[in-house]
Amino acid sequence: MVSLSPGILLIADPFLKDPNFARTVVLLCEHQANKGSFGFVLNKRFDQCLNDLIPDILIPNIPVYYGGPVQIDTIHFIHQQPELIKGGFEIQKGVYWGGEFDKVVHMINAGKIDANKIRFFIGYAGWSSGQLENELNEKSWILSEGNKGLIFDEKDENVWKQALKNLGSNFAIMANFPIDPLLN
User: Residue 97, Cβ neighbours under 10 Å: how many?
Assistant: First the structure.
């Protein structure tokens, strides 16, 4: 059974109405029962690219994702390149959160970072102590093991549906539920 821990995915229940999290998948980066939790929404692309937000980035069109509604004036990243990006925290095998940002900027500009192995977020999703557990009890989220294919999937519009399908036929049917069943 999957439990709250770094590297797991929180898949929004099909009827979750919160506009920040409707039909999203969140990668949980940290969970401490007595302190709280945080992670990043994987499938909501932000309307600006990295070079729009950080003038020092010379490479255009690197996507940024809306990580969540907390501190939307901050930029975070996850990656699969610990040999190049030092100082990251491993949240699951082969997936790291953070690292030396100035060096990341330099390596992006030098073409040394594989854009398919790094993902940038503006803001993050955060829960106070006990809040995420309460949301799980309310059935707002479905837990799943993390999966690099979903975490770094370029087709972010498919991530939520694919995450449900990966859980088997009982959940796969949920991927086709209407947003509002009253309109069905």
Answer: 23
Q: Report pLDDT for 156.
A: 81
Please tell me the distance from the alpha carbon of residue 175 to that of residue 57, in angstroms, as a whole number: 37
* E strand map for 13-134: 25-32, 36-41, 45-49, 63-66, 70-79, 89-92, 95-97, 118-128
pTM above 0.85, yes or no: yes
Give the torsion sign (CA, 148, 167, 26, 156).
positive
Asked whether 180 and 22 are in contact (CB, 8 A), the reply is no
Model confidence over 112-152: pLDDT tens digits? 998 889 999 999 999 999 999 999 999 999 999 988 888 99
pLDDT the model gives residue 173: 82
**Could you give the residue ranges of the DSSP H alpha helices within 9-114?**
50-53, 101-109
Look at strands 141-144 and 9-12 and give their pairing.
antiparallel
Other CB atoms within 10 Å distance of the CB of residue 51:
17
Q: pLDDT-based confidence at 33, cuts 50/70/90?
A: confident
pLDDT band at 155 (very low <50, low <70, confident <90, very high): confident
Other Cβ atoms closer than 10 A to 180: 9
Using an 8 Å Cβ cutoff, are 44 and 93 in contact? no
- Alpha-carbon torsion (51, 19, 142, 176), positive or negative: negative
